[in-house]
Design brief:
- This protein is of the alpha+beta class.
- The protein has one domain (24-94).
- The protein is built from 3 helices and 2 strands.
- Strands 1-2 form a two-stranded antiparallel sheet.
């Protein structure tokens, strides 16, 4: 697969009570169980970001959410750069 081809995201619907169901594959990959805690950020009008919190909200988790918010502002301003799969994964590992 070409490194620049993006994977199609999983699609979920919001239920009547406002709940989202995280697909089984993602729950298994991320070790998400009942009671798992997430920080929720809303960095732009139509974007919701979830960050799994392992213990309690730590300074680095809060910093990661702020980085996502700043990145979206850069994208909206046209200041973003593209990267291939390897560069993206290397940046992701730094989180």
């Amino acid at each position: 697969m070409d490194a620049k081809i993006k994977k199609v995201p999983d699609l979920v619907k919001v239920g009547k009570s406002g709940r989202l169901v995280i697909p089984t594959r993602l729950r298994k990959e991320m070790h998400i169980d009942a009671g798992s805690v997430f920080a929720v950020s809303h960095p732009k009008k139509d974007l919701l970001v979830l960050k799994k919190i392992e213990d309690s909200i730590l300074n680095d988790d809060i910093a990661a959410l702020k980085e996502v918010e700043a990145a979206w502002k850069e994208i909206e301003a046209g200041d973003s750069v593209s990267s291939d799969k390897e560069e993206f994964l290397a940046d992701l590992e730094k989180w």
